[in-house]
Amino acid sequence: MTLRNPIVFIGSIAVVFAILFLWWLASVTGTVSRAFVPNPFDAWAALVRGFSRGDLLPQTIGTVGRMLQGWLLASLIGVVLGAAIGLSRTARDYLQPTLEFLRPLPASAIIPVAIALMGLSPGMALTVVAFGSLWPTLLGTIHGFAAVEPRLKEVARCLQMSGPAFAWKIGLPNAMPDILAGMRLSMTVALILAIICEMLASQAGLGTAILLAARAFQSSELFAGIALLGAIGLVSNLALRAVEIRALAWQNSH
Amino acid sequence: MLARPPEPAIAFDAIRVDLGGKTILTDITLDVKPGEFICVMGPSGCGKTTLLRVVAGLVQASAGKLSLFGKPVQGPSRKVSVVFQDYGRALLPWRDAAGNVALALEAAGMPRAEQRPLIETLLAKVGLKDHAHKFPGQLSGGMQQRLQIARCLAQDPEILLMDEPFGALDAMTRQQLQDEVLALAAERNTTVFFVTHDLEEALYLGDRVVALLPNPGRLARIVDVPLARPRNQLATREHPDFLAMRRDLFDMMHETH
Amino acid sequence: MRLAKAAALPLLLIVGAELWFRGPGAGSESLAAPSAAFAAIVEALGDGTLVTATRQTLTAALGGLAIGASAGLVLGFLIGLSKTAIALSTPSVELFRPIPSVALIPLAMLVFGFGYGFEMSIVAFATFWPCLILAQAAASQIEPRLMEVSRVIGLSSTQRLFKIVLPAAMPRIFVALRLAAGFALVVAVTVEIAANPQGLGYMLMIAQQSLRPELMLGSLIWIGLIGWGVNAGLNALQGRLFRHQQVAGGKP
Hints:
The complex is a heterotrimer of chains A (254), B (257) and C (252).
Chain A lengths: L5 H24 L10 H14 L2 H32 L1 H14 L8 H8 L3 H11 L1 H13 L3 H9 L4 H39 L4 H10 L3 H29 L7
Chain B lengths: L9 E10 L2 E11 L4 E5 L6 H9 L6 E6 L2 E2 L7 E4 L3 H4 L6 H11 L4 H14 L15 H14 L4 E5 L7 H18 L2 E6 L2 H7 L2 E6 L4 E7 L10 H4 L1 H16 L2
Parallel strand pairs in B: 3-8, 3-9, 6-7, 7-8
Antiparallel strand pairs in B: 1-2, 1-4, 4-5, 9-10
Chain C lengths: L1 H21 L11 H13 L2 H32 L2 H14 L8 H8 L3 H25 L3 H9 L4 H38 L4 H11 L3 H29 L11
Helix pairs in contact in C: 2-10, 3-6, 3-8, 3-9, 5-6, 6-8, 8-9, 8-10, 9-10
């Protein structure tokens, strides 16, 4: 009864098309206003038109670039800082309660502070994306490094391994599942914050594009942009999941 | 010049260990000769594992002196290797069998090119030649413990510490591994300090058996085991001397309890 | 001792910031001293603006959560009862789930205009997916032995649903709800910051734009406290309700 079964597989694809068909039906029968929800074919045409006219590609690159830059920065800082905190009992005692307190804070709430400090600049957007998407990776890394099996710490002592060797050969691989899971969550946060920052700071990107499309009542262009943002989310998630499967092959070997 | 007797491999001199305000071990004095196979046994709570951890340098004695080949112990050393009972936790789950053995060689700073043939030899020695690229999660319990032994041998230790290494294995595998460890120790002339709660295992393996009693852990008796080597799972265990020593130690443990 | 260590860093930061903004940093238009932020919060509490904004944000978050979570939980639970249904729905779920909730802000604004409908619809969308996925997992991972027991003692399928399936899935469903509640608050504030002129997020934005950094920082801390409070409250509730059942962490 899984997707390996060809009938179930075809059926599951049919469900996707059924949903698209319902969307089409709703738009052509006028169940929902055309002003809000376009015919799916019109949305597709808007997508093709956007790329062939050359507007959508730079906007997509803008959003993806903003997301990736912030995410990479966050991942780098998160892993290095997380490793340092995770490896030190003292650092954890002093820092972890504060970090746990900050965890439920909406990442977007720092946007006004960033605007106050940096204005509506590209640097502000990068800072917000990086700062907001830092937390999942940072907290995951801390947990991963702190949760090393005590027995392995003894093995490392018996082998007289140096601190850096322990961090590299035992701490890091042990933290890898948590780091990668954190980075995947960080990517989702990074995309959301990139969109919000574009909307607020009117920087070239899909976030601005869909906002302008909505203001101009161009529902086809609006839906094309939403679909494109969904595709960015989908592709980045799939890519990171592929990395996880490769890097964590040992976990599934039992 | 006068021929001096060789330094003992392990020399305990009035060792006492307090942990958390409680005396775990007291007044342990014992010399282990180089190349000797010594078994430490006793009921749970007698401090036998703590004694092993003192030799490993993982626990510091609160009083007394401990020397290995005449040098006082300052902490863990690569010349001393430890086979832990919980092999599942003592192996790196993300490295395959070869990688786990390599860990010990890397710690010793051996160049990568020299590692490979040595890893092959060590894995072959413990019967894991065909499993070099399997992860610990893919190996049975007995194979995982073999792998841990291979990693310990990779340290080329002068002293091998074994903490109830076969306690979690089934009877058949346990007997196989007992014989393999005896053969490896004889071949390398390694000093083995073997902790077990199983009286028969201690007698079967050891040149001497050290019996501990609990509360606080202390020496009860040291028994010489003059049974012929190589030992045999059937002949040795049925030997009248073996049976007599077993009865003797059994009674001693139960009387004083 | 633990508490002292935990409080050391926040106290150091607060004292450091206080000293800085009274000395060299005084007159800053972008940031303010902690004491000023505290005073601003007390003032906003007194004149009712903070209470109104908090009520608006919580109403929108709760309303959106009610819609998104109930739809997600019911649908996810029904799908989770059948392996075929899980397989049939997986590609659709995987295809539509990655759409970032905030990408729907312009659409929802177009459909509903500013106000609760706008904000709740985004919150509902954002909370729908985690609830769907987790409820599906809860329904599909019920201990098979329990199902065998129910068959052996001859329960009808309705009895099985109410006596076995639902109680067994309840702890995981609550975990889904707890996570979704956290999301709901985050998304509500985000929508307010991005577009919707009401609630705490908007208060934060207006404080920044009207160059009142002390009110901005005060509201930021207030939002943090509310988020922390909701989180801690739900954690405690989970501990009370499901004392006897083990729930594996946050995510199954």
